[in-house]
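Entry for the shared binder. Reason: the reviewer on the internal report wants the predicted structure included alongside the sequence.
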Amino acid sequence: MVRGKTQMKRIENATSRQVTFSKRRNGLLKKAFELSVLCEAEVALIIFSARGRLYEFSSSRCFSMSKTIERYQKRVKEPESSTKQQGQHENKQHVKEDDFSMGKKIENLEASKRKLLGDGLGPCSIQELQQLESQLDRSLIRIRTRKNQLIREQIEKLKKQARVLADENSVLRKECGMPALDVSTNAREVADRESMEVETELYIGPPESRIPN
């Protein structure tokens, strides 16, 4: 008679469930014992029934069940520590690679800086020299643009200061009862006077007699 395949689900009948539990439990205990004897393996088996009753088997005569569990817990933690060590090793490797990459970048930047200053141009090809020349031209354009911007800002600042001083001068002249000055006309007069000034020699005394040659 062919035995039917047992369906893997909870046995609803309580009596059948208890009978099956007893048979399977005894079978597990027997297999655990056979494995420990035949293979000299350290086997520990713990079973709790549905009612909470404990059944256990330990193949070690020198150590109790707690010692076997302690050994198991210690062994389980070892992969975690090895994983951590492996992770630390990988992190160190990444740090070394990053340091090497950063060192190469710094070295390339230093070489580029020396070339821009006109040093170390011997190994450069014509194409590299043209690229350096173009880079310097672009840098000069940016520098001159920024310089002109600063000059314009400084001129505007000086103009504002001149207007403030002119306003203060007008107020003071008005308080003193003096007529206001045309700043633009006065500035032109000063410029014309400065342009007309020539060097002269001052002599005090009777005029010298000039004898024609």
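Summary line for the report: The CA atoms of residues 190 and 205 lie 32 Å apart.
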